[in-house]
Design brief:
Shape: globular
Number of strands: 2
Number of helices: 3
């Protein structure tokens, strides 16, 4: 219940982009089922993190 409330609070306050860091996509799946239409990204490895950092620097 607190998970859903926390996500809804974040969304209502302008958060529309979520990043899950670490192996697996469990939390991303929970976000998708709770808040429709938000952007979700997964960073599974250190290389994924480096790639992501290069993209956001551009």
């Amino acid at each position: 219940m607190l998970w859903r409330q926390s996500l809804e609070f974040m969304y209502q306050n302008g958060v529309e982009h979520f990043i899950e860091i670490g192996p697996g996509k469990v939390l991303s799946g929970l976000v998708k089922r709770t808040i429709k239409g938000v952007k979700i990204e997964n960073i599974d490895t250190l290389q994924d993190l480096h790639n992501y950092m290069e993209v956001i620097k551009a």
